[in-house]
User: Fold these one by one.
Assistant:
Number 1:
Amino acid sequence: MGATIILINLATLVCLVLAFYKDRRKARQSLYEAVKAFIRILPVVFIIIILIGLLLGFVPKELIARIIGEQAGFGGLLGVALLGAVLHIPSLISYPLAGSLLQSGASVTAVAAFITTLTMIGLVTIPLEIKELGKKMAFLRNGLSFLIALTIALLMGLIL
Amino acid sequence: MKKTDKKLSPEKKFKAGVPQKENPASTYWRVFFRDTLFLVIVLAVTLTLLTIFPAKRPTVISVSKKFFVELILILPAVMVLMGLFSVFVSREMVVKYLGRSSGLKGFLLAIFFGALPTGPLYVAFPLAAALIKKGARRANIVIFLSAWACIKIPQEMVELQFLGLKFMATRLALIIVFVIFMGLMIEQIIDWTDRRPEESKGKGQQKVRGKGR
């Protein structure tokens, strides 16, 4: 568990020092933004942590494997991809969830599909996208993103 | 790579639109309280479940604890990085660099600038609209939006932590390739449908002013 965490914290520290060196006021504002974002995301973090615990504790691996495992059909894959498109979880928090799914028997393809649609497609934000960029662009982007997410997921299943 | 910077006629139909500000402070707390309420519900359900099935307690608690420790060691750093990006990379900078770049360099810049600043996707829409107005290439806008949505440097670090290097690197590479492909494809489709409005009347024309619905 150690290496990545140490790396990230070190990198952040270096960036922070550089930021303070460059512009003290802006750096302080960044920290303020960071604290604000951290507080806002905290409840969701706890929710996801508990859900992961319940997932690994209560849902049998065989069940997960049957729905979205290596041997599962295309239906399960389509299901998680759609779920990812509809859900509106901060992507930061979706990675631990995805990791726990992987641990509990889901296939690489299904997990990749889930996080890719989750981040790329926002059904919730489509109205805003239409307003700013027009219907054609919004629908094309979200529709194609879905197909591309499925393709990426299938390719990842083949590669890994 | 051809330059299409100049011949972007359909840009007029897109209004850059001022993002509606609905008192960010109250929205912030409303979201926070809504999420906290969810948390309380989840917590209550969990406690009930664990009381009914005491045998599951050790697994649930140890798993949750493990993920909690990992997240708490990584999230503050990620948040600080995101804060730094959002303050130091200004919108003006993004618009300035993306508005005039073309070709492969344009694609890579679009990905780079999409990956840098952070914030939810809806922040990127007005930015993208401003870029269209400035005459940026359609493909670059799509690439920029997609990169904003799913390639974020801090997010990639969290992915690295929880899903491993192989998973993260493969997905990142595939996404970059496909996002560029998608940008070009959408540009082609939009150019193509705009060029023959008389043939696809119902389709092409009514979109002139997309309304949020």
Number 2:
Amino acid sequence: MSAIIDYAPLLWQGLMTTILVAVLSGALCLLVAFSMGLARLSPHWIIRWPAGVFVEVFRGTSLIVQMFWFFYALPFFGIQLHPLTAAVLALGLNEGAYAAEVVRGAISSRAKGQTEAGIALGMSPGLRLRRILIPQSIPAMLPPFGNVMVDLLKNTSLVSLVTVTDLTFRAQMIRSTTGETAAVFLTILVMYFLLSVLLTLLTQWMEKRYALDRRALAVQRKALRQESRGDKVGAL
Amino acid sequence: MIWDNAFAISIIPMLLKGLWVTIQLTLLGTLIAAVLGLVAAVIRRLNIPVVSPLVSFMVIFIRGTPLLIQAYVAFFVLPIYGISFNAFTTGVVIIGINYSAYMAEVYRSGIQGVSVGQWEAATALSLPTVRTWCRVILPQAVRTVIPMLGNYLIQMFKDSAVLSAITVVELMATAQSIGTSTYRYLEPLTMAGALFLLVSYPASRLVNKLERRYAPKQ
């Protein structure tokens, strides 16, 4: 166990890299999720079709194959990516493909009346999406998004295989220098577990924060308060 | 020329051999996961003091940690204590245990889906606990979760590539070793990806169909 304390700074650096990879690829994942998820709902086949191919290819092959492909195969096309870039790209695109299905599912399961009401009010398709469909879909998206993010966090351990010096990579280094195999691996096992628990708690908090009826309740309460004070409620 | 067609064709037999190992890994792993997951789900439901909370914690812990690290622990740590198997066996057991944690949740939702009336009827007929589970609850619970288990099977098929890190020579490891020995990574990696897609895409289509057939009628 003393080896772990001696090498704590190394593990700390690894943890920071892991978090960096998770945050960057998480951001890419969200970007991909919304662009591809919305593209798959497009009425034009020229937009819908490529997005469908993208999602099926990235969901249909292993993340580790994609990561190695970005790292080892792209140089044959003259594109040499930094290990971190290749790792973030593979993670973000892969998990983004899963999340795109979440976006598509959540938006296409909105009640039809919402779209029709938007049309009746003369809203353009973009405005309907931005003001009505997406905000309503967020609460339904949050739990599966949380799962995708925990999955993404766990999969950051794979970036060590393309030489990114994350927590797993540092642990392997410490293992090979000290031979304290059990202590090192159990330590990072617990660290990963704590990170995913933290992420789960964050998702649960956001679920509560953005729950639809809770928000409606808050608006009602505010309205009641203003009414009782004799303020104008017309704005609501 | 970037893509060497003759080379790509020449490595197909090796990759297919790797694919076969991947398929074996997946089928055996799913078998372990399906059985262990069921056991875990039933134990959690039975509410045995100490045992049930312990199983619950194991499920959460396994779900919260990366498969790669679990594989490393099994592959590097267990041999120190005199427990060692070959890479393939370790891989199958680890991925089976990993997925059993997910399947336990699936079974749990299946068990919860069985209506209370069924439990009450079993009690009214004073069926012993084992009969109640084996003849009444589980047959109904498992039926509804079959498509979900199919989804996890496909997921495991893709995830098993992680086991290449503990020297299991499956599809990914085969592609990698072809790459290191020939200095050409483009063809083996692309073809490995294509093979994964070739199996998993039709399989997921099939599971979708099953899902619609087995879905409880509304």
